[in-house]
Design a protein that fits this description.
With 231 residues, the protein is α+β, with helices and mostly antiparallel strands. It has helices at residues 10-18, 109-116, 136-144, 183-190, 221-228, and strands spanning 22-24, 27-28, 42-44, 47-48, 57-62, 90-91, 100-106, 124-130, 146-148, 151-153, 155-164, 169-176, 195-203, 206-207, 216-218. The structure holds uracil (URA).
Length: 231
């Protein structure tokens, strides 16, 4: 950790440890390779080490039956389990257990706060498969504004992509800025439809691209910079 932080070389770091100049949480350590976590306070010659942890940013195509959390008391698979890293990353916002699609994970708290803050109005686009076909009456209600838990949901964009008259289902694309839990399902419930499948296909300027279910990639520096600038 000392060498990783850029404080000094690995060899010098070992010398400092052997000289008894390194404290972890107030205790002198003299074992080389002593394991520390992000929360441990490391002191060298009386100075607290700035660990300068590398920031990581991932875009995951979340499969169904994976929970958007860092751990689960029911031992279900989490989005964090799908990413190969030792960093303490967590998802930015939530997708339901049965929702698939685009979710960002990071260990950068500032970045996550920017994206989740309601004032930054990050657009999210979903495709919902519903058990019915929207009619004129529904569109009238949508134009008037659908009240969800005493707050009107503002729809940025909505488009019926496909209608299957035989099966009585449709695919609807919907773009919103809101991040309230279960908001898309609640929106369709308010119109008396059930959401049979839900996928997030876009988050701000990011799309799933070629990522298959369960696959992920790191965000590029430009993508991170763009999202930081939403502030
Ligand atoms: N809205 C929902 O209802 N569920 C999600 O997972 C995301 C948005």
């Amino acid at each position: 950790m000392i060498a990783e932080s850029g404080y000094t070389s690995r060899r010098k770091a070992e010398e400092l440890i052997l000289a008894g100049k390194v404290l972890v949480n107030g205790e002198i350590i003299t074992t080389l390779g002593f394991k520390v976590s992000d929360e441990d306070i490391i002191e060298i010659d009386g100075n607290i080490l700035n660990k300068n942890i590398k920031k990581e940013y991932y875009l995951l195509n979340k499969p169904r039956e994976v929970i958007c959390s860092v751990s689960d008391d029911k031992k279900r698979k989490t989005v964090v389990d799908l990413i190969d890293t030792n960093s303490r990353i967590y998802p930015v916002g939530r997708l339901d257990y049965d929702t698939t699609g685009l979710i960002i994970l990071t260990n950068d708290g500032n970045f996550a706060n920017i994206l989740m803050h309601p004032s930054h109005k990050v657009e999210k686009t979903y495709i919902a498969k519903i058990n019915g076909i929207l009619n004129e009456d529904d569109f009238k209600k949508i134009r008037k504004g659908i009240d969800i838990d005493k707050r009107v949901l503002k729809i940025k964009h909505m488009k019926v992509k496909e209608v299957d008259k035989k099966k009585n289902t449709s695919l609807v694309e919907i773009t919103i800025e809101e991040g309230r839990n279960h908001i898309v399902r609640k929106f369709f419930e308010a119109l008396h439809y059930d959401v049979l499948k839900l996928t997030r296909i876009k988050y701000a300027n990011l799309t799933l691209g070629n990522l298959k279910s369960g696959e992920y990639r790191e965000l590029s520096k430009d993508e991170v910079r763009y999202l930081y600038n939403l502030k």
